[in-house]
Input
Amino acid sequence: MGIRVRFAPSPTGFVHIGSLRTALYNYLFAKQNNGDYILRIEDTDQTRYVEGAIENMLNIMKWAGVEHNEGVLIENGQVVQKGDCGPYIQSERLNIYQKYINILLEKGEAYFCFCSKERLERVREEQTEKGETPKYDGYCRGIALDEARKRAEAGEPYVIRLKLPENKDIVFEDGVRGKVTVNTNDLDDQVLMKADGFPTYHFAVVVDDHLMGITHVIRGEEWVISTPKHVYLYEAFGWDAPVFVHLPNILNSERKKLSKRQGDVAAADFKNKGYLPEGLINYLALVGWSPEDEKEIFTMEELIESFSLERVSKSGGIFDTDKLNWVNSHFIKEYDIDELTRLAIPFFTEAGYVTDEEALIKFDWLKDMMTILKDRLSYLSQVKEEAAIFFNDDVKPVNEEAEETLKLAHIHELLNIFEEKIKEVDTIDAEFGKITFKEIQKETGYKGKDLYMPLRVVLTGEVHGPDMGMILKVLGKEKVLARIKHVRENFI
Ligand code: GLU
Output
């Protein structure tokens, strides 16, 4: 069988940017090897259930273009499951876990534990007081299986724990970190089945990865400390363990784990700001993986070709927003302009510049605007500020330099001739601008800064900005005349 990998999120309601990268690396590795990439939902912790979480997560993965073809999918807004190894939602697999827990119990690799919360608490306190690392003290390890079953049937609450052998080295080879060895004396008799009949993550993940034929487990480094327990479970069942690859965390500029408190960490935050999926994905691929050459801009196809687990770094990758912006602005510049305009419309409407209906009617006009603005954008919600010059007719000089510009001695002469030329034609566009500026230059002798800067301030309030010809085209004759009048009356 070929390579099979999985992304196994818990439905917490949002996809952390680090999880999106984990999913991406799984996806790239699978595609590169013509393997399968599966999405499984790990919802064994029922206390963390969030309404609509699965849909939200699947929609974000779809948006990002990191798409699986097996497991839990969204089709026409509905959550569906596809593939031969289902169900792919853990809460629908409880009978499977029951079957496998019985196998472990029969083999003597697991045991019933009837300890009360209070007792466990007491043991933990005593251990902490003695300066020991708290762990289960094995109180129920010796209870015979048939006696334990009787107690359970009689209604006594219980959990099922893994029976780890004493003083045994568990060794596995991690794809990023190399050989990892942990002694069972440093591990706890992990709970495998909880009192509510749900498996713990540790048990479910092993059973599922095995039954789903997963060959490589590629996941975040927070799971590396749990992996020895998983490896032991594979051994206990007599199954071959998959290859484990633990990815380093994504860190903030202070080298701490990226956390919600510091701003954007959910993939949806970046979507909502108007990052393009292509830009975000390209950038994320580079946080923790480095290509063999200096190349920095990649399409998904190119990532699939170039990606390699061998070049994933051992240390955490720093999330650098400036670099993300640089990568994203590259994709914005290259994007199909119709599509880019469509993607920007929600931000035009959000700013109150146009209604949804106007956006449809005036699509070409917005497209002209995007043609001008796109070189200035790192992400699309910036159109809210960048496009303000086109919607705010109440032009004011924005700073001292702009105010000074309006005081130039030749401002009246310039405005008069400009105004006249505009009045002579029906419509104005970029071509008109080009010709007109040349004519004015010839007729008055003003050129360069002396010509463009005053006119720019009159039309936009700003000293710098996009191409003047395009500004004329987007504003149109009436608005240009109105703005000249407005500025002349108020500021000159
Ligand atoms: N459900 C785990 C998570 O939320 C997945 C860990 C794994 O990939 O094994 O991150």
User: Anything to note?
Assistant: The first helix runs from residue 17 to 32. The domain at 4-90+250-318 is CATH 3.40.50.620 (Rossmann fold). The pocket of glutamic acid is lined by residues 8-10, 42, 205, 219, 223 (CB under 6 Å). DSSP finds 21 helices and 13 strands in the chain.
